[in-house]
Amino acid sequence: MATPKIKLYTNHGCPWAHRAHIALAELQLPFEEEIIDLAVPRTPEYLKINPRGLVPALEFNGEILTESAIISNFLANEFPSHLLPVSNAPGGALLRAKIDFFVDTFISKVNSNFFKAQYAKTDDEVEGFVKEYVEAVVKEIEPLLINATPFFNGSDKLTQAEVLTGSFIVRLFTLPKYGLFPEHILTDLSTKAPYFYRWGQAVSKHPSVLVIYDEKVMAAKTRERLAKLRAA
Ligand SMILES: N[C@@H](CCC(=O)N[C@@H](CS)C(=O)NCC(=O)O)C(=O)O
After folding, report:
1. Is the pTM of this model over 0.90?
2. Position 72 in a domain
3. What CATH number corresponds to the domain at position 36?
4. Is the CB of 67 under 6 A from ligand 1?
5. Which of 80, 87, 185, 193 could form a cystine bridge with 142, CB 3.0-4.6 A?
6. How confident is the model at residue 38 (pLDDT cuts 50, 70, 90)?
């Protein structure tokens, strides 16, 4: 196969764009990147690439794809690997469905509580969202990770389940120590959702998840963003 020409339009502070970085790292695909400054209005050139003005966007042999899940799933389908079985392999369609369900459940039932807690105005509100996060993990995610070793469905390598959730998990496991989130969320999760906790620890240390993530930089950026929001 000829080497594909891949360009990623990204911003290293964006957890959605981070998904594409994890996929590219895990698939060991060389690519060019262009950092889009999200602090200023998008240029007319970028709006031609993604009229929504969001990152990430991927240029693949001249074709443009947008939306992080679509980009990451495209890469995993185009370059079959340990990340995602092909659907006509034995058990392939079933495992793909399980991964889809896991990612959908994490994003729709759990993850938004993390951001809501960061933007909450009072300590009581923060604690409410932390409680909802932990309860949703216990109810919805913990049963799906019982056989994680350490990754989804007994895999010893990263899978598409981690590609699509890892950027959020690494924030959960690192930002509390910078005072940006109540630290007890991690102790609560370790006692109430031990399978999730063990999985999350492995995910948040994986080199492909850490490929663009510097926790100190992220903590400083998050602090700055929240201070601006509170001042506004
Ligand atoms: N659903 C989109 C969400 C992407 C998104 O929200 N990206 C944010 C950065 S994290 C963005 O580009 N925001 C534009 C802005 O801040 O002006 C995806 O999954 O790709």
Report:
1. yes
2. yes
3. 3.40.30.10
4. yes
5. 193
6. very high
